[in-house]
Structures are given as structure tokens and as C-alpha cells.
Design brief:
The protein is α/β, with parallel strands linked by helices. It is built from four helices and five strands. Strand 3, helix 2 and strand 4 form a beta-alpha-beta unit.
């Protein structure tokens, strides 16, 4: 398990728990881990942002990269535990329509992804 992020399986989706998305080098590690999972057939992801009160451009780029890779593989992608600051950033950048937002990662919410 990594100090900044870790994965858990929930139904048909892999949940990525992150503590921060500020560091570009760490974000590249996260993207690489997701890419490896996609190459091994895991194509549905939820990113739990409940420990991330706000993000910068590096974090936004990380989310966009994972969303793009997941979509390209034919998978589903969602964000959970999104703070009001992150929602505001997605609205300002006009990127909110590109992300499915869920309130938490319980099985009912993941059913729409699987």
C-alpha cells in the first residue's frame, strides 16, 4: 500500500483512495498504477476524494488522464466524496459534465458503474 493512495475492490469497480493530488510526480505514479490495472482488464474505477478538500491543476490533470484512459478502455469512471471546492473548480473549468459524481462508495452507487 502506498502512503498517498491505495486501491480496494468494490463489486465490479476498483476504488482508488487518494490523500492528495498536488504533487505531479505522485500523480504520475497514480496514473501508472491505473494504467497497469487497465492493461490487466480492470476498467471500472471510482476515485474517492473524501480526504482531498481541494485540488490544483496537477490534480485536475490527473483526474482527466484517468477518466480518459478509463473511457478509452470502455470502462466507467466516477468521483466520490467530492468537496464543494472541487465541485466549484469543475464548474469553473466547465469540466463537471465529464465526471460522474457520487456521494459515497457504497454498493448502490457502484451499481450504476458496473
Amino acid at each position: 500500500m502506498n502512503n498517498i493512495y491505495h486501491f480496494a475492490q468494490r463489486g465490479n469497480a476498483k476504488v482508488l483512495f487518494v490523500d492528495s493530488l498536488f504533487n505531479e510526480l505522485e500523480n504520475k505514479q497514480i496514473i501508472s498504477s491505473v494504467s497497469n490495472l487497465i492493461e490487466n482488464g480492470q476498467i471500472n474505477f471510482v476515485i474517492d476524494l473524501s480526504k482531498v478538500p481541494f485540488i490544483n491543476s496537477a490534480g485536475l490533470n490527473c483526474l482527466l488522464s484517468i477518466q480518459h484512459k478509463t473511457q478509452k478502455a470502455g470502462g466507467q469512471f466516477a468521483l466520490s466524496g467530492v468537496s464543494s471546492q472541487v465541485v466549484k473548480l469543475l464548474e469553473i473549468t466547465k469540466l463537471k459534465p465529464f465526471f460522474r459524481l457520487t456521494s459515497d462508495i457504497n454498493a448502490d452507487h457502484l451499481a450504476v458503474i458496473a
